[in-house]
Amino acid sequence: MASAGPVQEALAALELVDHHCHGATVADLSFEGFESLLTEGEPWPGVSPFDTPVGIAVRRHCAPLLDLPRHAPPDVYVARRAELGWREVNRRFLTAAGVGTYCVDTGYSPQPLTSPAELAQASGAAAYEVVRLERIAEEVAARGVEAGEYAAAFRAAAEEAVRRPGVVAVKSVAAYRTGFALDPERPSDAEVTVAARRWLTAGGRLADPVLVRQLLWTAVDLGLPLQLHTGFGDADVRLHRADPALLTDWLHRIAGTVPVLLLHCWPYHRQAAYLAAVFERVYLDVGLALHHTGPARAGVVLAEALEITPFRKLLYSSDAYGVAEFHHLGALCFRQGLAELLRRRVEADELSLSDALRIASWTGRDNARRLYGPPVSEPVRDPRGRPTRKV
């Protein structure tokens, strides 16, 4: 890639706000275990996740941080990872990411992951919590509740969860559970009771459309920024139902309330850009599409997302989960892709250098600080209250 000059330098120095990610593993991984975390799909006999854009990107851009040559073979890479141990691996990748603040979804952990506090300790950054509301609902059901009391019990549990120290947002995975083709109206108490009875009798995870609607409206009532997974995900998602454009009627209903963050979005990042362009409180990122496309194509995804997105509406997230490589790789893809995009526009005289530098700062850090406010907007401080990093 040609030098991006001052734009690349500014992005390299900018401490990002990763406004949506997960923890990193707290165990050494076997070869198969590491491969399983490289993909959103299931293992396929005879096909290695290393032979994908993200697998190639890991070998190219992550191997040097493990003291290996670029493009190290997969078996050598995983063996070196095990030799260093998970603590050192996490420390290296998290510090290399150059992130000043992490917002961590704590609601999905089929295997042990770092908590926000542990992520902060390993990285030297600040880390805050994002509460996944489906998990709260399922915990309420697991404790036992009468159908007629479910709505109040869920609301009380959600209110208690968001009062935990360090909580900065809530999240829903409605895209996975029902998709977005939902009645946009708030369900009545009677509808919720009937649906709760049906769910509590059948058991399983929350996937009832009425209860998902109630969850989304409760999220609005909580008053915190609401993160919504959209688009690309694992095989659980029905992609055509995860198009954020399906939320249009609901977004009209909640206009003027809470900020809505459309996460990841690919391949619907253009639809998400439209929503951000026409709804005051809608924002987006391209999340895990960055590392899954790799540095070679991340700039294309960013360029498509920015075709009509207001520059104060695009945020950075990695959606890193499990392997700390993704915390680093997401940041690297974002910096390289955005720097190249802005450099080209400056060289074509479609953008001034000062505007390019503002857009870089807005997208990588300032938009998230503006949207989430304190404590995300505050610098990391040492025990004496002094800022530990430049802001």
Give an overview of the whole structure.
There is one protein chain. This protein has a seven-stranded parallel β-sheet with strand order 1-2-3-4-5-6-7. With 391 residues, it is of the alpha/beta class. The radius of gyration is 21 Å and the shape is globular. The protein starts with a helix and ends in a 19-residue tail after the last helix. The model has no long low-confidence stretch (mean pLDDT 94). It folds into two domains: 5-15 and 129-372, TIM Barrel (Alpha-Beta Barrel), CATH 3.20.20; 29-84, no CATH class. The chain has helices at residues 5-13, 31-37, 53-62, 74-84, 86-96, 116-123, 133-143, 150-162, 174-177, 189-202, 209-222, 248-253, 269-278, 289-293, 295-305, 325-347, 353-372; strands at 16-21, 99-105, 126-132, 167-172, 226-230, 260-264, 282-284.
Note the quaternary state here.
single chain
How widely separated are the two ends? 28 Å
- SSE topology string: HEHHHHEHEHHEHHHEHEHEHHHH
- Beta-strand content bin: 5-15%
Can you tell me the CATH architecture of the largest domain?
Alpha-Beta Barrel
- Tell me the major beta sheet: 7 strands, parallel
Please write the CATH class name of the largest domain.
Alpha Beta
Name the average pLDDT: 94
- Class from secondary-structure proportions: alpha/beta
Q: How are strands sequenced across the largest beta sheet?
A: 1-2-3-4-5-6-7
Weakly predicted, low-confidence segments: none
According to CATH, the homologous superfamily of the largest domain is: Metal-dependent hydrolases
Radius of gyration: 21 Å
By DSSP (H or I, 4+ residues per run), the number of helices equals 17
Q: How helical, in percent, are the residues?
A: 40-55%
Number of domains: 2
Q: Would you count the extended β strands for me?
A: 7
